[in-house]
Amino acid sequence: MIRAAVVDDQDLVREGFSLILSAQPDLEVALQAADGQAFLYGVRADPHLDVALVDIRMPVLDGLQATRSLATMASPPAVIVVTTFDDDAYVLDAIAAGARGFLLKRCSGRELVDAVRRVAAGDSILSPQVTGAVLARVRQTSGAQPGATIAGLDLTDREHDVLGLIGLGLNNTEIAARLHLTVSTVKTHVGNVLAKTGSRDRVQAAILAIRAGLG
Fold this sequence. Notes:
This protein is of the alpha/beta class. Helix content is 51%, strand content 13%.
């Protein structure tokens, strides 16, 4: 059973998301909160939450500040930021704060449920609508220093290729097609890349690749 928190100052959104998640046999909404401070209190009281859906703009304490505060806790839930704002600056701020996913509130119920399951399993997710904008923003704001940030990481040639394609925003299936590999082989390479680069998820790896001039 995946135990989730839903954090949003709008009652309709909070209750709607909770209904969608609770309708699934493997999901339980164990916490609802209307602001970031109440969310943190709830996490301290219940250290067994797996995933939290967190709005950005809320009273008392906003979602980004609350997400940053989770870093001081022993076993915090993985955060998916869910917001109406699709500005890529918000996405970068959410990633920097430690969020494992970013979704727009106009996503479907199926996308919401899938995101919670994937993040609970250790994946990271970005709404398809904003992935391209995020990577474009990183390219615009980060001066590439080819090789500088990946020197000494002991990447194989194939892992180097995979990292570059992650930086282009390709998923595992697309990388497999580009390199003429099986998806399972690509998953292995991606896992090695994340471990060797110290990336929390493939979003961080993509940013690293772009800054290294690979993406």
